[in-house]
Amino acid sequence: MLPRGLGLRRKKRKRVNPLNSQSTRSTALLRQPFVHQFAAASILLCAFALPLFPEPDSDLNKLLHNIEIRYNHAQSIKLDFSETYTTAGRPAQKDSGVLYLRKPSRMRWEYTMPEGKLFLSDGKDVYLYTPGDRQVEKSKLKESEDMRAPLAFLLGKLDFAKEFKSFEIRQEGSATWIVAQPKSANLVYTKVEFLATPDGEIHRVDVTGQDQSKLDFTFSNELLNAAVAPSLFAFHPPPGVQIVEAGQ
Predict the structure, then answer these.
(1) So what's the pLDDT on residue 12?
(2) 45 and 159 in contact (C-beta within 8 Å)?
(3) What rounded mean pLDDT belongs to the chain?
(4) Domain locations in the chain?
(5) CA distance readout (Å), 10 to 21, 46, 62, 132
(6) Cα(143)–Cα(160) distance, integer angstroms
(7) What is the 3-state secondary structure (H, E, C) of the chain?
(8) Do residues 178 and 63 make contact, with C-beta atoms less than 8 angstroms apart?
């Protein structure tokens, strides 16, 4: 169920609380090139021409294949999400809202809690706006370090075999957790975990950062090939709000 792009390389190791506007501006932890180039590399475009493991019929390969089949052909997705950010010494922070995804590489995280918060990718640039701020942070999608980026994979941008060096699985009821370790050490995250049903629907994505902070997503009410208008992915700053390039 889910969120295009996990293999992006970050230019800075500096991170921020993805649920906090000030910290987000400082680092763009929520900027990540996860989802691939967050950010634009997506799990479901994986064309598993070769098995990831020697056993071509392994349970893991079957599940990865089902995930790919489910999302690779979808042109758009709409779903509800909740996210929880935890880091040492601080209470967990929670946000929620509606996520819209549309090929190619477009996504809109429309928050209802906090109301008015917006994280948007138009396929080229990403924008982060938090109510009360007098500016919007803008960065190139391929340079984004936002940890929401790995979710873009839902529209087929991530190649599991290319992006990850190892996988583990564990059962949770009828669903399965896939624990993936990225090949590159130059990312804002060190581990990504996916909870998927046997038919490939993703219910959760947990991202562990370099500093051991965690950003966990839960998805529900997934609608594939939803009527998602292209205009949703055009960013229009509120009156009086300035757009600032990340890093300035």
Answers:
(1) 44
(2) yes
(3) 76
(4) 21-231
(5) 20, 22, 31, 27
(6) 20
(7) CCCCCCCCCCCCCCCCCCCCHHHHHHHCCEEECCCCCCCCCCHHHCCCCCCCCCCCCCHHHHHHHHHHHHHHCCCEEEEEEEEEEECCCCCCEEEEEEEEEECCCEEEEEEEECEEEEEEEECCEEEEECCCCCEEEEEEHHHCEEECHHHHHHHCCCCHHHHEEEEEEEEECCEEEEEEEECCCCCCEEEEEEEECCCCCEEEEEEEECCCCEEEEEEEEEEECCCCCHHHHCCCCCCCCEEEECCC
(8) yes
Reported pTM: 0.73
Q: What is the mean pLDDT of residues 223-241?
A: 92
* End-to-end CA gap in the chain: 36
For 121-158, how does the pLDDT look when each residue is reduced to its tens digit (9 = 90+)?
998 899 999 988 888 999 887 766 666 655 655 666 65
AA identity, residue 35:
V
Q: Give residue for tokens 């998602």.
A: 228
Domain 21-231 = CATH 1.10.10.10: no
Amino acid at 28: A
